[in-house]
Amino acid sequence: MNADFQDVIKIKFSSRRGGGMKRKMFWFVLTTTLSLILLSGGLAGAQQKPILLGGSLPLTGVWAETAKVIQKGYEFWVEETNSKGGLLGRPIKLVIYDDEGKPDSAVKLAEKVITVDKVDLLLGGYPGTAARPVMPVAEKYKMVYVSMGGHMASFTQGYTYSFGAPPLMGEWWFLGGFQWLETFPADQRPKRAAVYIMNNPVGTALLPSVDEYTKKLGIQVVIKEKYNLPLPSAEPLVMKAKQMNCDLFVSGGVFPDGVMTVKAAKALKYNPKAYFQGVGSAIPAWTKELGEDGNAIVSGTSYHEKLNNPSNKMLIKRVKEKLNLDSVDTYFGFSVAWLQTLFAGVEGTKGLDQTKIRDWLKKNKVDTVAGTFTFDEKGLPPPFTYATQVVDGKIELIYPAEIRSHKGVYPKPAWK
Amino acid sequence: MFEILLLQSLVSGILMGGIYALLGVGFSLTWGVLRVINIAHAGFGVLAAYIAYSLLAKTGLDPLLSLLITLPCFFFGGMILHRGLIRPITKARETIVASMVLTFGLAIVVENLMLWIWKADPRVLKPSYSGTAVFIGEVGLPIPQLVGFGLAAAGILLLYLFLNHTHTGKAVQATWQEKEGAALMGINLQKVSEIAFGMAIAAAGLGGVAMAMMYTFDPPVHNFWLIYMFLVVIVGGVGSILGTALAGLILGVITGLCMAFIPYQWINVLTFGLLIVVLLVRPQGLFKTGV
Predict the structure, then answer these.
(1) Cα separation of A406 and B93, whole Å?
(2) In CATH, what number is assigned to the domain containing residue B25?
(3) What total number of domains does chain B contain?
(4) Is residue B72 within 8 Å of B93, Cβ to Cβ?
(5) Nearest to B1 among A243, A266, A288 (CB)
(6) Cβ-contact A273, A249 below 8 angstroms
(7) How far is B148 from chain A (nearest CA, A)?
(8) What are the backbone angles phi and psi of residue B204, rounded to the nearest 5°?
(9) Which residues form the domain of B42?
(10) ipTM of predicted assembly, 2 dp
């Protein structure tokens, strides 16, 4: 028999002996103690039951470098949110599996986190080829899925729980660049375009914005060719553009063919007024590896660390304070924007009901580090990209004017 | 105007084909002489490209000079690799299949080693002459490709001279033609095999640096290079050094002509269609008299 129990017996005995005051005291102590136990137990219970946020990323394999940046972004934003009291007053716990960038693994792991781990919220995946097949899984289990998406086609399959916030949309890639060219007087704009596009879904997705805007700006497309990767040789492409006096060169490829084309253009002394590049020039390796040869190349993005919205300024400040980093990788920003969107839906509905979150997101504005978004039925914001240009080895924002970090360089200077 | 484009396409194609031939000759040598299909061959090429890149970035050493360090290391490294890994599997009943499985694993190890050291970021070898060209009329010959082609020509010529004009080279050829007979003549098969494998790995290193003069590279790129190596070796004839060289040039000419005459998206279809035709008509390759 322990000492506490002996005390209780003792009190009981005392009360039987007619101590009314003591009896009241006994009940007061008992109820107060029980209340405190229940209250503290309840709080402890809440602390022990975090909101589970899970999914997969290619943490190993060829996509691992970028995926780890996304992972860091996720972890950073979860820590930030937890330090401010969590979501709905509950801490967030992150569960990330490695899908190696394989679409089938991404699907299996999405099923696993939903049905086995029973996550409360689904995490956006990467790259587009792995994110796209997760969209029907999200639809099947009615889970909101905020990611980069695959490409435009992945958002036109009738999925209602998927959001691109922001998406990385090939179809929009050159919008910002052409809108930037539109700001110049008509007689100064390029007149003849050479358009070379890699022959895959990402490359061909670039064509609509090229077709629309070359027509709109009165630019004659004199070369429009697709090529298969790997590109065997870039000199013939460049020579053809040079021979046909093309003053706008659109290289709709990725890093390897983009670099080959730049090197060929420099070697063959081909100097167009404007040089557009697909995804290749948006990665740090472009400026690091090409040096000044990579300058003045125009591309697009839907997030940039130099965006001047309050949310992004706060992110940059916190990253500096917490991680002691002077710059933020593009994919770090993307991952934060995706979580901001998801969390805005949770806070907006004050709950974890996925259908309510989905409906809330489609009716309300969401502030993210990439900008303020509204979403249509497909889960996409209105078409946009920010035009970027490599200036003095740095990727700068050049359009729209209100967000630009540097004045665009036009016409492109001759190769040095 | 069309003539210039045609000449440019042909020149670019030939320069490219020569470099692929260089990468292919070592592969052809191990396949023909040792009956080893070295899936990791292009991986060693990428490794040499990374070493050249690092030496250039850190010490400013020109990639050509870096070969003075890389090639001996690759030659002796290849010999050690043969002794430790390749020799045991030559006792297998199906040496070719066993070698493919083994070297596939080796390729994964090499790729992951490069990922660990240099990460997955793509790299560009930029010597001082990068982005420069020699012009003949209006046709430009980029100097890095010319250097790569020069390496290819020198490498293939040296390998050819070694195999045909040195005692060890002739021993290598004898081993290839009649293994038991060569052994009966007193040729040390193990030593000859080690030397052949070492030379093949050194040729892979030379080819890798030549490829990096033209293309960007990252650890998994060896898989792409491997496809073209198979192409030139099969078309040229397994084990035939000159055949591989000529196949590389043919590949270059065809690619160049395709770039001038047909839409670019059909180039691979035509190139690999040619491979199918060669396999159907001359399964032993264009320049080999016997299988």
Answers:
(1) 67
(2) 1.10.3470
(3) 1
(4) no
(5) A243
(6) no
(7) 14
(8) -60, -40
(9) 11-118+138-281
(10) 0.90
